[in-house]
Structure formats: structure tokens, C-alpha cells
Design brief:
The protein has 125 residues and is mainly beta. 0% of the residues lie in helices and 47% in strands. The strands form two sheets. Strands 2, 4, 5, 6, 9, 10 and 11 form a seven-stranded mixed beta sheet that branches. It has a four-stranded antiparallel beta sheet with strand order 1-3-8-7, with no helix packed on it. Strand 4 and strand 5 form a beta hairpin. The chain is globular and about 45 Å long.
Length: 125
């Protein structure tokens, strides 16, 4: 059983940065993929970034250059660095993980079978 807890959301002004962290407990024998997605009110879930156990990472084109994903192995934490935030980045942000071996890419992240409770990011003047 995998449990995910997101930390680090909050309210910021446009242009500012935030770092989101996802603390991961439990392990899967064959899962290889984890990442971040977001959902704004009235909108579809949007995959943002993925991390594979082989070390490969991908960031969605929509946020490339502003968002970065990384994993802290020592603390088993998956991080998402948000930079140059815009009002349209306002959403609930979730981390997710799979217990299956999958082709890991941002578009798959909203569909993975484990997810946290989410953390709210609000960008406003």
C-alpha cells in the first residue's frame, strides 16, 4: 500500500515561486511511475510532470520552463518546483503513483491508481 501526502501549497502573487513536496510511504514491487497533476474548478485534470524509477523525468509542454520535478531519495519525497507562477496556475495539486509497470509520462499521471489528498495553490495579486 502506497500513501502520498502533499505539502507546500499556499497563496502567492504572480511571478512568485512555490515548492510542493509529496511524502511517499510504502512501496510497490513493480510500480515505476509517479508524478504531479492539477485540477482547477470546472476543468479537466492536467498532468504536469512525471518521474520514472529509471531516472527519467518529463514536464508537460504547458508548464515546461517554469515547473521542475525531482525526487529526494533519502527522504522518499517527490518535489515539484513551481516558478514564475501565473493566475491560471491556480488549482489543487496532487501527486500520484502507480503500483504497475507503465510507460511513464505526464499525461498518464492523473490516471495512476494512488494519489494524495492534494494541496491548494492560489496565484493572485
Amino acid at each position: 500500500q502506497v500513501q502520498l501526502v502533499e505539502l507546500g501549497g499556499g497563496s502567492v502573487e504572480p511571478g512568485e515561486s512555490l515548492k510542493l513536496s509529496c511524502v511517499i510511504t510504502g512501496t510497490t514491487s513493480s510500480g515505476n511511475c509517479m508524478g504531479w497533476f492539477r485540477q482547477a474548478p470546472g476543468k479537466e485534470r492536467e498532468g504536469l510532470a512525471s518521474w520514472d524509477t529509471d531516472g527519467s523525468t518529463y514536464v508537460a509542454d504547458s508548464v515546461k520552463g517554469r515547473f521542475a520535478i525531482s525526487k529526494d531519495g533519502a527522504n522518499n519525497t517527490l518535489n515539484l518546483q513551481l516558478s514564475t507562477l501565473k493566475p491560471e496556475d491556480t488549482a489543487m495539486y496532487y501527486c500520484a503513483a502507480s503500483d504497475l509497470s507503465v510507460i511513464c509520462w505526464p499525461g498518464l499521471i492523473p490516471h495512476l491508481n494512488y494519489r494524495g489528498q492534494g494541496t491548494q495553490v492560489t496565484v493572485a495579486s
